[in-house]
Fold this sequence. Notes:
By secondary structure, the protein is of the alpha+beta class. The protein is 27% helix and 45% strand. The strands form 4 sheets. Strands 4, 5, 9, 10, 11, 12 and 13 form a 7-stranded antiparallel β-sheet that branches. Strands 1-2-3 form a 3-stranded antiparallel β-sheet, with no helix packed on it. A two-stranded antiparallel sheet has the order 6-14.
Amino acid sequence: xxxxxxxxxxxxxxxxxxxxxxxxxxxxxxxxxNVNGTNYVISHSIEGGKIQNxxxxxxxxxxxxxxxxxxxxxxxxxxxRILIDAKENGSDTHYIVLVNNHxxxxxxxxxxxxxxxxxxxxxxxxxxxxxxxxxxxxxxPIVSLVLLASIITTIIISQKNRLAQF
Length: 166
């Protein structure tokens, strides 16, 4: 009887590992970025170059944009707040924007769902980094592991209760 429950626990563990989102960050041709299995649309326009790649670094809470510049130009990008945001005490604060590792000024428009940044760059620019204070999902894998632990604990306790009745 305990053997069957052991197999159930192993099966649940394997399913959770398969279901847990993988930490992949990639931009597709339709301006969609995949972060931990969730797609986010990144609307943007660029003059003076083209975007090579957009990625999110959840550890440093920043978006990295690789570009190939052909002249001086600018990029306007809509940042979904559910993906990356900059807040302090619940209120909007400034992002830190780096162009080729140098801090720059930028223009910003805010809505409830997005923050639109316009950043100028010089010919020869190849990276733009936007540093925020939070990147989603901040707790994705941890929540899944807690759920797995809860399921296993529930199974074990229910088995102990069944054995105690006999």
